[in-house]
Specification:
heterodimer; A: about 400 residues; mainly beta; Immunoglobulin-like; six-stranded mixed sheet; about 5% helix; B: about 450 residues; eight-stranded mixed sheet; 3 helices; 28 strands; about 55% strand
Chain lengths: ~400, ~450
Amino acid sequence: MAADTCPIFMRLPDHKGLGLKTLMAGWFILLMGLGSILALPGASFARTQLATLPLQEQVFIRLAGRNTALVQEKRVLALVAGINKIDFSWQNVHIDPDAVYLDTLADPDDIALLSVARPPDASALVWEIYSSRDTDQPVVISYLLAGLDNLVTYTALADDQENTLDLDARLILRNFSGQDFDNTLFWLTPDTVFNTRLQHRETRQIQFFEQKDLPVVKAYDWDGRTMPHDPENAPHAPGIPTGYKIKNTSDAGLGTCDLVSGKTRIFQEDGRDGTIFSGEDVMPFVPKGGTAFLKIGNSRDILVFKRRIHREQTRVRRNNKGAVQVFDEIITDRFILENTKAVPVILTLTDTISGQWEPVNMGHAYTLTDHETLVFDIHLDAKEKKTIDLTYKVINTFTGNFARYNKIAPGN
Amino acid sequence: MQHAMKCNTYLVLLVCILAYAFPAWAGIDLTAVSQSREIQITIYNPADLTLVADSRILPLAQGMNQIRFSWAGTRIDPTSLSLAVTDAPTAVTIEQMRFPPDTKDLAIWHVFAEKSCTAEINISYFTSGIFWEPHYMAFLSPDRSRIRLTGYVRIQNRSGEDYDNVRIRLVVGKIHLLDRISDLAQRPYPHGRPEPDSLDNRQQDAFARGKALLESAPAMAVQKSMAAFAPKKIEKTGVSEYFLYTIEGTQTIAHGWSSQLVSFDAPAVLAKTIYVYDDLQFGAQPVQMLSFTNDTDAGLGKFPLPGGGFRVFHKIDQKGGMIFAGTAETDYIPVGKKAGLILGPDPRVTVAPKVTKFAKTKLAFDDQGNLSGFDDVRTMALEITNFSDMPAAFEITRQMPDPDFTITDISGQDRFEKIDQTRFTFFVTLDPVTKKTIRYTITTYKGDRKWQQTPVPSS
């Protein structure tokens, strides 16, 4: 750890009659020129050494993925019998002074933290520690340090058939805390602990996870809420989002830990001993057992058209003046699906039917994710064109003031 | 006891044999600096107010005595200055107190003694610039069933005065004040003047005081009796609407320093970690809430806990290893009451409410055949996942936009509770890495249907 970037420990001289300003002056001198003062043997500070800079035995950094890291330092304090003043100060780093914790790891009858004081206009704490005897006492000092965090990035390589992925996860450590760390244990999860060095302003990338041949499903996701219903006549038809569905489960080769959110760059073997870059997406947080969809781009080779081909009002109820109050509707929507690729695909088609409705004749199996959202998983052979008609009845459609109740408002 | 050298208040005894004893002021002037016998400071929170009680021994001459008290460079409210004779062997009368016209930050008491004597007096005043605030550290056990809760009080001295070896009391409670003590301390005249000050004068005066304060900032003063080998205890007692923390022994707080003391240390407070879902209050993700009750069963309950910031850590092993769980603020926690520390969302747990079925039933029409009302019937599903490696208890609160509804066909919950006419809560616990769905049906009465039956909320 660099001496000018702290935290810095020192024992304040416990010397009766030493004036306060003298102490402060000494503090700065010690800070600036510790070596020269230590070179003065037999200085007049009696049984306490003039200054001790307790060595770090071990440093743990527990990363939370946010701008603040929990640093835990194990040090050995050379305590003398009686009261010891230990100065914990920092410069050019941001430490939450209310979250600095000294654990003496000792019987409180032997060693006790008596008080903590904070000097004026200084980033420091002064611990007053009572020791029943002269001892070298291991302690753990924990504090929250800003400017040190971590990112996770992934690289995925799909085989040329797009059936499997090799997933490589890298941890990016970014240290802009103002503090250097040597030989430090970084703790990401209980299963992910590694030892490295990290200097101030240094960014370090570490591989912490690699898994080969993960089974994946290439998926095409058409969503009627966002996609054009007539792509050939839409001015800027974007194509159907496509990518890989991945499961964080043991049977899918994962499932040992949560997948942290991070940028994922996806490549594919080109079948000629080379690779191409397919696209990139953000891997969402995927807990153990969860699934994720990694989008690589949009496909223009799968076409989906939606057309309303029939609409009929039934059970119309009018008031005494003949104005319509309530009616039902029989509706038929037609989906025309076309796979222009030379390989079969699985198309996931999502569409909504708002309001109160019931199926009449649905041309394909579906699942309801809520009362209005239908999801169809449709197999399309190579070069296949398929038509699916959905006939359903919308019930109790209101007119006038009550028309606002025909659908459930978003968020309601 | 000695005042620190940097002390900015001075008490000077000027014994004057006044005109009725001798024909002229010229006679004998006896001046002596009196030393404090004991100082007690009572610091309020959240008001910027500290009551200082300064007990001293004064020798008094027969006749009229002048006691001069000056406070340059401090934040003392001169209108609060008070002198009381607490013990004297003869009659001692405080005739008057004056603030001389040409000397700032000076008060003079005229004290008449029937005979020469030594009297014990008490000078009290308010000062601003001394603050205390509580804060807490909570260490959650690995199984999250208990917390080691340590409360701290931090005392900060920006008053311009060093307080050396003083007795300290801390007051918890809201006090009613008409004026801010810091404003009273900065007025150019102790009780103001008939016409208002000009802004320029006040600014100049404030600037001068600030400069004086900076120049007078003393060096650090942390000294301690070698005899005291244990952390100071803080005694807690209730007084009227306030709670008083009295710090054991004496303490030194130099200007500019702050001191932190352990208020209490409860090693094993019963705690519960629950996930609270309330989209109107916390958004679409459940938030982790660490709750404990301030009662004796839980390991607390002897005194109220003043509001303050919490830093929460989760211990993960017996070697001191821990992870930072989050920060939270709490308000005042009376004895017997529950506190909840909101630690933020955990991506491993989710709650997703869905409408799985929607119907409009029981349509009502008026005598003109117009639609006049209906029942909005929704079948709801609360899909809950716990991907964490520990059991997770959930409290899921839902709010309806209007009170005309009934809730029926509830399943999947451990407990259901209606909070008020529009809010209700489900309680459920999930094992690690499991999913669960709570289902219920909400029927809301629209239009005339509101008047066609009396909704009876189920429970």
